[in-house]
Design a protein that fits this description.
alpha+beta, four-stranded mixed beta sheet, 6 strands, elongated
Amino acid sequence: MSSIPEPLLFNPLKHHLGYIKVYISQVNRDDITKLKSDLLSIGDSQMDLYTGALSIAQISHQILIFINDSLLSNKSIYIKYIHELNDHYKITISDGSEWILREGLNSERYIHFHPARYSPNTIRIKANTLKSLIAACIIHKNHVGLSEINQVRSEILNLGPLKQLISDCGIARRIKLFDQLSRLTYT
């Protein structure tokens, strides 16, 4: 679904709403084992999710241009530079969104990037909220409400049920965002 060029490391299921839209439309809803495995990659903390119009390829391209223009394409130079900057560096790309560059733990993918906290074109989201929404959108394609979310939280994610969906809070606000996915086009 997504090919991220080396030496970049990026988790699109955790950080890119457009990718999530494509993932939801393409994943086999009957392959619960794969779904669980994929959702595990999201982790358990909070993260920033990019909601802008740029594709992963466009973001990756702009980051690689920055890396090359800054003479940081050599692995040892890049890692030394990042360590000198307290292990991360923030850049701004063409749509105004901000991205954090870190050291990737993979030897071939040593430039780890993700959206900066509270960057333009991002939302802050809890991992369990994101996993619940993705699973519910896959299993219950046409309608995602409290009962559908609680079903996937119980049966797929081993999480406790929610008591209610309050329209201005947490998961209810994110349901509205996921509803908007049908109006977005990503390549």
